Amino acid sequence: KVLIDGKSSFSEEKLEQHETTRGITNTQYFLSVKFPYRNNKGEIIGMCGISTDITAVKEASMMVQEREANLQGILESVNESIWSLDKDLNILFTNQTFFNEFRHAFGVELTKGINIVDSIPIAQEKEKWTDRYHNVLSSGQALQFSDQVQTPEKIYHLDVVIYPIIVNGKVEGISGFSKDVTEKMALEESSRLYLNLFESATNEIYLISAKSLIIQQSNHTAQKNTGYCKTELAGLSILTLIQEKDQEFLLEKVGGITAKI
To answer: DSSP code of 238?
Structure first.
């Protein structure tokens, strides 16, 4: 082709050499440059070539690509949202979790290179996140906070950390991590509600071990009616608080419940 078109060509070539004694194959990589050889009339009378061994560079490049692929796999496998920005707040990277959550919250699909705060359609949210990003960029310090995101279905609660990306002592960008803690907060709220009901109930309530019938926890009414304090009740058998004629009935009920577990 060089002889026909009269143009130089560049190509990467691979040479494999098999070592029979050790049973391994060594691969060398070369960058080849071929160009036409002309006489003093400008006519192509042949071709010249220069080949440079680039094995070390190629192997280093392949190693970097492999590491990037492994890192990408790790970032995509976690449940947390992960994203990074340059110092102008343009997107460098988002994992699929962050992409999906941003789209769900704001109806915008993020792509590499676009400005993340310009992609937020709600003025109040845009101002809030702009302040947060600029705080990290100017201070060079991480910022940790809790946040809420309103969607048509419900409010999501997030734990967020924003870190500065520092290169040679200068802040060159931002990396962000956020975790959806909505379910955790709902469980904590349910626990608080249960505890309030447990303590304020006018009936005696005991939490006991199904196997040993030992009291694990008791409410205020139980402590008041029995005359025992909370720590005294914990560790007692529930049978010590029940008349002998009612113990068989209790054992039957507990046995019926545990049999279903």
So the answer is: G
